[in-house]
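queue> pop job 88
queue> type: inverse folding (structure -> sequence)
queue> payload:
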């Protein structure tokens, strides 16, 4: 087991990564946003670079938790963990809830919370982001794992908008963030917000004292937890900022926000900055074991912290790689758990063809396309946007090259024929076939027969190009003119305003 003070992205099950890669008491701050909205499927809805809606919708992940062998194993691991209080709580919940989806979620979370407690430093803190569907159960689990005295706050993120006249209940417009410190010595610095003289006087409702020099004073608590009032200069109070409560009014990301990456549970960077600034110092290590599109690691990098991100989908890891390199070109980080050679790539293809496709597509800077439903992609696994001058229109036009990924070990000429048909159907200038195996000569002949694409005056490119995994590991890439490498960033603007409460 290794301490990881540097920046790292891990692709894989966070439970396995925590146990194998993260050392005891090596992390200063943990933020986690584990999805739970039973049986929900979360899609990423992309847009074209010109802003038009795209049908490139990816089913990023599901949070369909069911009581099965995995849930039973997680429950058993908590029983054998040695933390009797945590298991007593979990067992009592099972007696109350039964073996259902919520109980499966809680068992999976309990075993992970035990590992997160292990890797957290004594001076560290944990913030668990959830919605009211499961927050009351998770709070009990956290009491069992950390001890009830470790509880600091139940923070309410208030993102009220579009309030409606509902027939049966109030508008649900907040999330819950459960804040726990591992010990009494956990680091904390009260965040401050600006305020005005009128706000200050309205909050105190008392007379202002003016001295002989014309300086204004008011009675205020002494600060740093002291409740005894003393006279303080109003200018000093205003300069120090206003201490925050545990209710945080903060808008969600709008559909047009520049922060948008199209990820369904994306949170504002400002929300994570507030948490990281309050409970860590520059150079500390921040861990997000459900890192999604990487908002926590982005905020950590922005504030000068080191970071570790873990996610179980390669689509998320690929998105974070692009996000971090775009926002912080000089940042150094490693990506672990993704294929690094032919053997590991073929192993991923056998274990999960969708994760393999998303990984292969990311290697050629393509936007992922399609989802887990059979036939949903229409033979397209990725899109590469490129620009070319349209002589007829007299201007630069954005085109799409089609990427098709085949993870099988048996080359088949039908792979080429299918992609050729897709190119014709979609009126695409170029298609790229990524193969696990080496193509046959007949496949190469038929690919050549698809023809060439002419860019500009004298540049030509094969319309159907074949690349093997071996080619990609050797650094070979598709031959495509004027590739728009920022298209992934622009295209992943979410077209709909997903409510963050749908976790």
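queue> result:
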């Amino acid at each position: 087991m290794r301490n990881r003070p540097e920046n790292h992205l891990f692709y894989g099950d966070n439970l396995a990564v925590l146990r194998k890669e993260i050392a005891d008491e090596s992390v200063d701050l943990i933020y986690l946003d584990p999805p739970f909205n039973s049986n929900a499927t979360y899609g990423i809805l992309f847009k074209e670079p010109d802003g038009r809606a795209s049908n490139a919708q990816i089913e990023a992940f599901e949070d369909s938790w069911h009581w099965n062998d995995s849930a039973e194993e997680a429950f058993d691991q908590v029983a054998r963990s040695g933390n009797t209080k945590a298991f007593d709580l979990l067992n009592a919940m099972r007696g109350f809830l039964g073996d259902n989806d919520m109980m499966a979620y809680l068992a999976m979370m309990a075993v992970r919370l035990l590992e997160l407690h292990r890797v957290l430093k004594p001076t560290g803190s944990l913030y668990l982001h959830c919605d009211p569907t499961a927050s009351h159960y998770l709070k009990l689990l956290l009491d069992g794992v950390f001890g009830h005295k470790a509880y600091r706050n139940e923070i309410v993120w208030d993102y009220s908008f579009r309030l409606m006249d509902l027939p049966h209940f109030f508008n649900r417009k907040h999330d819950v963030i459960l804040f726990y410190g591992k010990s009494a010595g956990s680091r904390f610095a009260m965040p401050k917000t600006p305020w005005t003289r009128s706000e200050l006087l309205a909050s105190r409702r008392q007379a202002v004292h003016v001295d002989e020099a014309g300086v204004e004073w008011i009675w205020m608590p002494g600060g740093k937890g002291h409740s005894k009032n003393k006279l303080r200069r109003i200018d000093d109070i205003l300069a120090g900022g206003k201490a925050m409560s545990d209710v945080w009014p903060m808008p969600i990301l709008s559909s047009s926000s520049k922060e948008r990456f199209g990820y369904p549970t994306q949170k504002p960077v400002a929300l994570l900055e507030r948490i990281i600034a309050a409970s860590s110092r520059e150079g500390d290590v921040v861990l997000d074991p459900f890192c999604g599109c990487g908002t926590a690691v982005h905020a950590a990098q922005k504030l000068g912290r080191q970071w570790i991100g873990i996610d179980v989908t390669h689509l998320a890891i690929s998105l974070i790689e692009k996000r971090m390199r775009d926002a912080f070109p000089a940042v150094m980080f490693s990506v672990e758990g993704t294929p690094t050679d032919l053997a590991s790539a073929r192993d991923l293809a056998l274990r999960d063809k969708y994760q393999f496709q998303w990984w292969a597509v990311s290697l050629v800077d393509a936007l992922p396309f399609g989802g887990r439903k059979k036939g949903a992609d229409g033979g397209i696994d990725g899109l590469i946007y490129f620009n070319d001058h349209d002589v007829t229109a007299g201007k630069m036009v954005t085109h799409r090259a089609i990427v098709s990924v085949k993870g099988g070990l048996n080359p088949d000429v039908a792979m080429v024929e299918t992609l050729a048909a897709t190119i014709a159907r979609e009126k695409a200038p170029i298609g790229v076939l990524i193969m696990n195996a080496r193509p046959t000569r007949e496949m190469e002949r038929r690919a050549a027969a698809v023809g060439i694409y002419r860019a500009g005056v004298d540049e030509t490119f094969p319309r159907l190009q074949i690349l093997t995994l071996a080619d990609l590991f050797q650094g070979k890439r598709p031959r495509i003119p004027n590739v728009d490498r920022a298209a992934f960033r622009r295209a992943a603007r979410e077209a709909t305003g997903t409510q963050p409460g749908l976790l």
